[in-house]
Amino acid sequence: MTAPEPGGADRAGVPVPEHGAWLRRGISRDGGPLVEDREVVWLQAGSYYADSRGFAGTTSFDGSQVHFHHLTGEPGEDAGSFRWDGANLVERGTNPDGSTFLEIWTPLPDADGACGSWSGPDHHVVRVGHHVVHVDSRAGTYWRL
Predict the structure, then answer these.
(1) For residues 74 and 50, what is the distance between their CA atoms, to the nearest angstrom?
(2) 21-47 mean pLDDT
(3) Rounded to whole angstroms, how far apart are CA atoms 124 and 117?
(4) pLDDT given at position 11
(5) How far is 129 from 65, CA to CA, in rounded Å?
(6) pLDDT tens digit sequence for 39-48
């Protein structure tokens, strides 16, 4: 898989869909090659999200970038500009430590149906259709119902 060429279109940014289940198809760290080293699922239900890497919280859009406010799990906040590439979302962003990334996200099937977000003192759960991600202080876990 090759990374999309850098350019102004990536910087304009679009908001993330209100409801979505996404599988990461590749990541480039600090301009390196686009690779995939593990299954990563991101679920979005309204302004709430959960990422199977172990962080969850809320998103906001400032007109050009989406900000992921980590409220559960791995601390921090990251921001990225999204653009559509067919059905895929291409994200370019910056991690809390200042490193950069490019990620390719493809929609998961069976994301229609029940959708919601639930949280407690040390956990957060997001469901989108047949997909569920649970995040707590130890890890993120993905299930397909």
Answers:
(1) 11
(2) 96
(3) 7
(4) 53
(5) 26
(6) 999 999 999 9
Structure tokens at 120: 């407690």
Q: Give whole-number Cα distances, 34 to 29, 67, 74, 101, 103, in Å.
A: 8, 22, 23, 10, 8
The helix (H) or strand (E) run that includes residue 10 is helix 8-12
Nearest to 71 by CA among 22, 121, 20: 121
Q: Is residue 84 packed enough to be buried (19+ CB in 10 Å), middle (13-18) or exposed (0-12)?
A: exposed
Tell me the C-alpha distance between 43 and 50, whole Å.
Answer: 5
Q: From 122, 121, 117, 118, select the one nearest 137 (Cα to Cα).
A: 122
Q: For 63-75, what is each residue's pLDDT tens digit?
A: 999 999 999 998 8
Confidence of residue 12 (pLDDT cuts 50, 70, 90): low
